[in-house]
Write the structure tokens for this entry.
Amino acid sequence: MGSDRRFDMRFDNHRVVITAAGRDFGRTLAIQLADLGAEIFLSARSLAAAECVRDEIRARGHQQVHAFACDLTDPSSIREFASDAALRTDRVDLLVNNGSRYLEGPDLLSASDADVVDTIASGATGTVLTVKNFLPLLLNSDKPDVVTMVSACGTPGHQRSDAHDAFYAAKSAQAGFAEILSKRLRPQGVRVISLYPPDFDNADPLSDQWENTPRGAKDSLTAQSLVECVLFAVAQPRDCFIKAFHFEQV
């Protein structure tokens, strides 16, 4: 993190699973958490994409990072991801549900049936099955957290995005799942945290732009701020259950 930011915490004792970390915000979060000392278990739909990010992180001097292939539309792929991770760790402290296919187009007829199925499966079914398969490892942790990157599209009444109706459906499903999961897992000490960002700027965390991105009141939301929201929520004492972060749109 930049020296002018407010977070100097470390995550050396955290074992973190991040889905869809081969690019965009998943990659950003994996790099940032590795820099803070976490052991990272990252997945992407293709193993090559996951291994690319793994190698970027290792090049920064962090060797505790593992790459996996996981297709969030395929239940067997999710099970295999969790099983392979369990061969390398006996617990997971933080599961980040970052994976969800984006589908653009405000016209319902603009997408094929296959695109609709893929979008809803990756965001809705994929999230449910990822939590289900990683839950035993989460329950082995003394600090288990589940973070889901939902979207402003998962907020009731939201209509400002040009995302396809199927994307709205997937995000609404994620929101409903996180809501009930938060209540049902609290007795077991698992915190369930959801983020509902609008469109945001995701600068490459390995570029100079990461430190120089404008972050004023009139600027768009940034990946830097979303990372800090995740870090803030996870770093709170275990009596503090932050359920959700909602953001104003510029």
